[in-house]
Amino acid sequence: MDLRDELRASAREVLSRESDWSRLVEAGWPGLEVPDELGGAGVSFAETAVVLEELGRAASGGGYLGTALAVAALTALPANAARDELLERIAAGAKAAFATGFSLRDGVVSGRATFVPDAADAEVIVLLADSGPPAIVKCQGLTVTPQPVLDATRALAEVTAEGVPATQAWTLPIDGERLLERAAVAIACDSLGVAEAMLTATVDYVKVRHQFDRPIGSFQAVKHACADMLVHTSVARQLVDAAVADVAAGEDAATSAAMAKSYATAAAVDVVGKAMQLHGGIGYTWESGVHVYLKRATLNRSLFGTPIAHRRTVAMRYG
Questions:
Q1: Which residues form the Acyl-CoA dehydrogenase/oxidase N-terminal domain (predicted)?
Q2: What's the rounded mean pLDDT across residues 173-196?
C-alpha cells in the first residue's frame, strides 16, 4: 500500500465519524503541503487531492478547502521568515482562507471577493492581488461577511478590503492563474468524491429494494441509469487524475484543469440527480441524505468557474 492508499484509508476512517476541525488537525491534513521543517508533511498536491476527494465522498466541510488553498498560495512563494511563520501556524491548526480579485497599489489593498470558502472563521486570510504584477498579500482590517447558501456543508463569506494597508506583500513568482487552476481542480476532486459516493449508494440500494418480487436493479431501465452514472464517474476520474498530476508536477494545467472542473462538476450534478430518482420516494426525503449531496454538487458547479466558463477556456486553446 503506497502513501496515497494509506492516506485514503485513513481519511475514510476519520470521516466515518463526526469530524470537526480538531480531528482534521490531529490527522495532519492542514500541514500536508507545508514543508516538514515548518511542521508539515512536505507532500504534494496529489496527496491533498486524496483528502479533497474523500471530503466530497463524505459530504464533509470542516474548513479544509480554504486552508488547502491558502497553503498553496503561500508555498508558491520563496521561503522567508514571515511566510514561514504563517505556514507554521497553519500546520499547527490555524484555519486559513484564500481570496482573489484584489488590487495592491502603494501598499494599499482594495477589492471584494464573494463566496470565499471558510473565510468567516479563518485566522489567516491571504489575498491574491492581480491588478498588476501578481502578489500574495496579508493585511489587517478586512471585512468578512458570512454568505449563507443552500449547501449546509460549506461555509462561504464575502471578503472586502476598502483601502487597507498591507502588512505583508510578496511578489508571486508564478502567474496568479496557476492558483485559480489549482482551486478549480480542488473542487473537481470534491465533485468526483460526491459522484462516486452516490454511485455506490445507489447500486447498493437497487440491489435490496424490491418491486414485483424482484430487486429493482434487475430492471433494464435501472441498469441503464446506473451504467450512465458509472460512465460519468469514470470519465470524471480520468480527467481529474490528469489535472491533479499536472498541478502536482508544476506543469501547465490550464487545459486539464478546465476539462476536469467543467466535466466533473456537471457530471456530479447529473449523477446525484439520477441517484435521487433511483432511490424512489425515499430519495426525496431528508432521511435519505441524497439532498445533501445534490446541494453540494450544485454549489461545486459554480465555485471557481462554471462549466461554461471552463469550456470556453478549452475552446480558446483548441479553437
A1: 13-93
A2: 97
Q: How many residues does the chain have?
A: 319
- Chain centre to alpha carbon of residue 229: 21
Task: Select from 85, 149, 93, 157 the least CA-distant residue to 121.
Answer: 157
Which pLDDT score, from 0 to 100, does residue 284 have?
81
Chain segment 71-96, per-residue pLDDT in tens: 999 999 999 999 999 999 999 999 99
* CATH code for the domain in which residue 188 is found: 1.20.140.10
Give the Cα separation of 203 and 187 in Å (integer): 25
Decide which of 150, 171, 192 is a domain's last residue.
Answer: 171
d(CA 36, CA 248): 17
- Are 202 and 274 a contacting pair, CB within 8 Å? yes
Domain shared by 153 and 219, yes or no: no
What is the domain range of residue 42?
Answer: 3-171
Which pLDDT does position 1 carry in this prediction? 56
Statement to judge: residues 163 and 182 lie in one domain: no
Residues 6+ apart with CB under 8 A from 249: none
Q: Which three cell numbers stand for residue 71?
A: 497553503
Q: Could you give the number of structural domains in the chain?
A: 2
**For helices 45-57 and 3-15, what crossing angle results, to 10°?**
30
Q: Domain with 154 in it: what CATH number? A: 1.10.540.10
Domain end among 124, 146, 171: 171
The pTM is what? 0.95
Phi-psi region of 107 (alpha: psi -120 to 50; beta: other; left: phi over 0): left
What is d(CA 146, CA 119) in angstroms, rounded to the nearest whole number?
A: 8
The C-alpha angle 104, 308, 283, rounded to 5 degrees, equals: 115
Assess whether 211 and 90 both reside in one domain: no
Interior/surface letters 283-312, b for 16+ CB within 10 angstroms, e for the rest: beeeebebbbbbbbbbbbbebbbebeebbe
DSSP-assigned beta bridge partners for residue 102: 111, 129
- Residue carrying C-alpha cell 497553519: 90
For 120-156, write each residue's pLDDT tens digit.
999 999 999 988 789 999 998 999 999 999 999 999 9
